[in-house]
Amino acid sequence: MSDIANTPAPPYYAVIFSSHLIADDKGYDKGYAAMAERMVELAATQPGFLGIESARENLGITVSYWESLEAIRQWKSNAEHQEAQRLGREQWYSSFRVRVARVEREYGV
Amino acid sequence: MSDIANTPAPPYYAVIFSSHLIADDKGYDKGYAAMAERMVELAATQPGFLGIESARENLGITVSYWESLEAIRQWKSNAEHQEAQRLGREQWYSSFRVRVARVEREYGV
Questions:
Q1: Cα(A79)–Cα(B86) distance, integer angstroms
Q2: Rounded-to-integer distance, Cα B56 and Cα B40, Å
Q3: The complex's ipTM?
Q4: Mutate: best of B97, B103, B106, partner A, most A CBs <10 A
Q5: Tens digits of residue pLDDT in A8-41
Q6: Any idea what the Cα angle at residue A82 is, between residues A80 and A84, rounded to 5°?
Q7: CA–CA separation, A16 vs A97, rounded Å?
Q8: Spelled out in words, what is the top-level CATH class assigned to the domain B12-103?
Q9: Which residues 58-77 in chain B show a CB within 8 A of chain A?
């Protein structure tokens, strides 16, 4: 279960990952769910990781939070993550968009 | 149905809105769904609006995209949106977080 990330005071960085799976929810490869769960676990062990939030209906949105652009660069180049990115492009996603953003303000209850 | 927003080349701004509803999906006030849908429609008519993406499982994530911080400020102060914000705080959300971020890079397929 994804919860609201308990991020520190800004500035920090967000990677907004939006995706559509090739098949619908019932049909998609079981390997996808396991991979997605593994990537959340793996991200949490990386230097500079601050938190992650995820939800999927038809569209899936995962936002991960990081201390710096360098931390994001390292996570993107992680070997196991690179293999997951390759599988995503080749097998799982019909479309996706990755946006790297600098969080400047934050508020909430 | 939410789709991947067709945003222009960065830089632009993102408002990442993460929330938990007070009741579970089956129990929540029907007014919430109508309000959420209306806010998406209303946001799309605002100056500087670039797109919106939304998904909810247990956690809800809505990311709206804007040309400038000024466009975000105007949307936040829109009268009908202010009323929705008040209802959200008082009736619908057990917790939420709003993050305003500057999108610096974007890629995808």
A1: 46
A2: 14
A3: 0.93
A4: B97
A5: 999 999 999 999 998 755 445 678 889 999 999 9
A6: 75
A7: 8
A8: alpha beta
A9: 58-61, 63
> For position B23, what pLDDT does the model report?
72
Residues A95, B108: C-beta atoms closer than 8 Å: yes
Contact at CB, A10 and B99, closer than 8 angstroms: yes
> Which residues from B are below 8 Å from A58, CB to CB?
1-2, 55
Is it the case that residue B19 has pLDDT exceeding 50?
Answer: yes
Q: Tell whether B18 is within 8 A of chain A (Cβ).
A: yes
Tell me what the mean pLDDT of segment B13-28 comes to: 81
Cα distances from A46 to residues A65, A71, A99, B9, in angstroms, run 11, 8, 19, 29
- Domain layout of chain B by residue ranges: 12-103
Return the pLDDT at A1.
56
pTM of the predicted structure, to 2 decimals: 0.93
- Cβ-defined contact of A14 to B98 (cutoff 8 Å): no
Write out pLDDT tens, residues A95-107: 999 999 999 999 8
**Looking at CA atoms only, how far is residue B42 from chain A in angstroms?**
21
Rounded to an integer, what distance in angstroms lies between the CA atom of residue A82 and that of residue A86? 6
Q: Tally A–B CB contacts below 8 A.
A: 134
